[in-house]
UniProtKB/TrEMBL annotation:
<feature type="transmembrane region" description="Helical">
    <location>
        <begin position="182"/>
        <end position="204"/>
    </location>
</feature>
<feature type="transmembrane region" description="Helical">
    <location>
        <begin position="143"/>
        <end position="161"/>
    </location>
</feature>
<comment type="similarity">
    <text>Belongs to the binding-protein-dependent transport system permease family.</text>
</comment>
<keyword id="KW-0472">Membrane</keyword>
<dbReference type="InterPro" id="IPR035906">
    <property type="entry name" value="MetI-like_sf"/>
</dbReference>
<keyword id="KW-1003">Cell membrane</keyword>
<feature type="transmembrane region" description="Helical">
    <location>
        <begin position="71"/>
        <end position="96"/>
    </location>
</feature>
<feature type="transmembrane region" description="Helical">
    <location>
        <begin position="108"/>
        <end position="131"/>
    </location>
</feature>
<keyword id="KW-0812">Transmembrane</keyword>
<protein>
    <submittedName>
        <fullName>ABC transporter permease</fullName>
    </submittedName>
</protein>
<dbReference type="GO" id="GO:0055085">
    <property type="term" value="P:transmembrane transport"/>
</dbReference>
<keyword id="KW-1133">Transmembrane helix</keyword>
<dbReference type="Pfam" id="PF00528">
    <property type="entry name" value="BPD_transp_1"/>
</dbReference>
<feature type="transmembrane region" description="Helical">
    <location>
        <begin position="239"/>
        <end position="261"/>
    </location>
</feature>
<dbReference type="InterPro" id="IPR000515">
    <property type="entry name" value="MetI-like"/>
</dbReference>
<dbReference type="GO" id="GO:0005886">
    <property type="term" value="C:plasma membrane"/>
</dbReference>
<feature type="transmembrane region" description="Helical">
    <location>
        <begin position="12"/>
        <end position="31"/>
    </location>
</feature>
Length: 275
């Protein structure tokens, strides 16, 4: 039996390592290509070590492409603000649905579940028309306000708070804390696993979003990185060396966010309560 379990574990590790290698190959090729010349990339040779190592691609996007730092700043502002607002509002809405008793709570929860079933593509035109009426096209608020709450994560936070120990809230109430004090000083700090998982998903979704900026933004000064990267592609030529270098810069913040929240991530997606 132990021998069979050992063979099974080795087979599992072999499969996981193979999958990890296959997954890493495109990333490693992109990283390598960010240090290659355009001629070497389009030559068709598949090599992970550049024949002519160069930093000109990074120099081009940071120094000679004047708008690239602005695109990076725009992405940081939009993704960071959207993440913070989602953490606050989704958590408050999830806690209210899990703990508070108020008229229309069940119908409101059913509406949120119904929203989960609507594809984002269906709401693109209505969102555009609403933003046009408000005069928010080509603006930061047009990018941030429509995405500052998310039905998926309201549902996720509700599930988390349903399993949250009520005894902690009752003890805090006996100590004199009100509802807001209980939420911000007791519940929210203990919800770090769920908040971390939510932060990763929301930040990645906003950071990688291409379609929304494409619809809302028209001024190159306000472009986010995904939309800015598209400008390196022309009708007759695509500067893949610049695209690969910019993609590496584009990937770095997401990796940092994931590494920072990694220890909470598995706990968060399992929807467990406090210890």
């Amino acid at each position: 039996m132990k021998k069979k379990m050992g063979i099974g574990k080795l087979l599992l590790y072999a499969i996981l390592i193979t999958y990890a290698v296959i997954t890493m190959i495109p990333f490693l090729w992109a990283l390598s290509s960010s240090f290659k010349t355009l001629e070497e990339i389009v030559s068709g040779t598949m090599s992970f070590i550049p024949k002519k190592f160069t930093l000109d691609n990074y120099k081009q996007i940071f120094v000679e492409q004047e708008l690239f730092p602005r695109w990076l700043l725009n992405s940081v502002v939009v993704a960071g603000t959207v993440t913070v607002l989602n953490l606050l509002f989704n958590s408050m809405a999830g806690y209210a649905l899990a703990r508070l008793q108020f008229p229309g709570r069940k119908p409101l929860f059913l509406i949120i579940l119904a929203v989960l079933m609507i594809p984002a593509q269906v709401t693109m035109i209505p969102n555009y028309l609403i933003l046009k009426q408000l005069g928010w096209l080509n603006s930061y608020q047009g990018m941030i306000v429509p995405t500052m709450v998310n039905a998926t994560f309201i549902f996720m936070m509700r599930q988390f708070f349903i399993n949250f120990p009520k005894e902690l809230e009752e003890a805090a109430e006996l100590d004199g804390l009100g509802r807001f004090g209980i939420f911000f000083r007791i519940v929210l700090p203990l919800a770090r696993p769920a908040l971390a998982a939510q932060a990763i998903f929301v930040f990645m979704g906003s950071w990688n979003d291409f379609m929304r900026p494409l619809i809302i933004l028209s001024d190159p000064q306000l472009f986010t990185l995904p939309l800015g990267l598209n400008s390196f592609k022309g009708q007759y030529i695509s500067y893949w060396n610049y695209i690969m270098a910019a993609s590496m810069v584009f990937t770095l913040p997401v990796l940092v966010i994931y590494v920072f929240f990694n220890r909470y991530f598995i706990k968060g997606i399992s929807f467990t309560g406090g210890k």
